[in-house]
Amino acid sequence: MNNVQLLSKPAPASTTKPIELYIFIDPLCNKALTMQTMLRKLQLQYEHYFTWRYILSTKLASLNTLGRRTKGCLTGAELDITHPALPSIAVKAAELQGKRASSRFLLKLQEHALLKTKEVTSYSALIEIAKESNIDIDEFTSDFGSKEAARAFQCDLHIMREMEIEEVPSIVFFNECIEDEGLKVSGMYTYEVYVQILQEMMNEEIICNPLPTFDELFSRFQTLTTSDVAEIYSISIQDAERELKKRMLQQKIERLQCEEITLWRNKIN
C-alpha cells in the first residue's frame, strides 16, 4: 500500500479507547462523503476500539482573504457574505457545543450541499442550517464570529501542516501510547484496508460487531445515500435501492433527490 507514513502524535489522547483516528477532510469535497461512508461502517463494526476527530482543511490564501474582509464583523445580523472557508469555520463553531452537535451540523451541511438546496458557503445559509440541526442557535451565532472558532480552525490547519497532509481525505491512526508513532494513510482505500490497519494497531484479533437492521441504521445516522447503504451492507446498488424503496412505501423513510444523487432520510412523523 502506497502513501503510508509514520508520525508523532501532537497531544495525549483523552479517551479510554486504545485507538484514535485523525480524519483530514474538506467537508464539501465528494471524497469526504466516500470517507464518511467508510467511517460509518467502521464505527458500526469496530467503534469499541477507537475514537475519531475530523480535521478540516481549506486553502490558506482563501482563509487569509476571509480574515481581512470579516474581522470583527461576522456577528452582524445584517451581514451576508459568501466564502469557501465559511463552512469549515461553521463546523468548528458547532463543535464548541460538543461532538454530537458538530456531527449533526456537518451532516445537514453536506445534505444541502449534495442536494444543492442552499448556497452552503453563505453566512446566512449556514445560520439556517444550524437551526435545522437542532443546536443552540444563539450560541452558534455568537461562536461563529468568535476568536474560539477561528482559533479551532487555525489549529486544524496547523495540524495539517505539522503532519504534512498533502492529500484529503487522509487518516492518521494513533494508539494510546504517546511515545509511539502514528500511521498516516494518505488518500482513499477499500474498507478492508482500514480494518487491517486497525487490527495491526491493536496487535491482536479484533472482534466485529454485527451490522444493525435498516431501522436501527436510520435511527443512528438519519440520512444516508444509496451508496452508503450498499457499502455498509456489502450489497449492490440495485439491492440497496430495492430495500430502501420498500421502507419508503412503509412510510419509514423519505427520499430526497436531485439530478446527481439520492438521499434517504428517516421520516419525520
Automatic annotation (TrEMBL):
GO cellular component labels: cytoplasm
Subcellular location, record wording: Cytoplasm
The entry's keywords: Cytoplasm, Isomerase
InterPro entries: Adapter_SpxH (IPR046404), Thioredoxin-like_sf (IPR036249)
Membrane-crossing residue ranges in chain numbering: none
GO molecular function, one term: isomerase activity
Main location: cytoplasm
Superkingdom of origin organism: Bacteria
Pfam families (alphabetical): Thioredoxin_5 (PF13743)
Subunit structure: Interacts with Spx.
Role this protein plays: Adapter protein required for efficient degradation of Spx by ClpXP under non-stress conditions. Interaction with Spx stabilizes Spx and exposes the C-terminus of Spx for recognition and proteolysis by ClpXP.
Matches recorded under PANTHER family: CLPXP ADAPTER PROTEIN SPXH, GLUTATHIONE S-TRANSFERASE KAPPA
Family: Belongs to the SpxH family.
Protein name stated in the entry: ClpXP adapter protein SpxH
Source organism (scientific name): Ureibacillus sinduriensis BLB-1 = JCM 15800
Gene name of the record: spxH
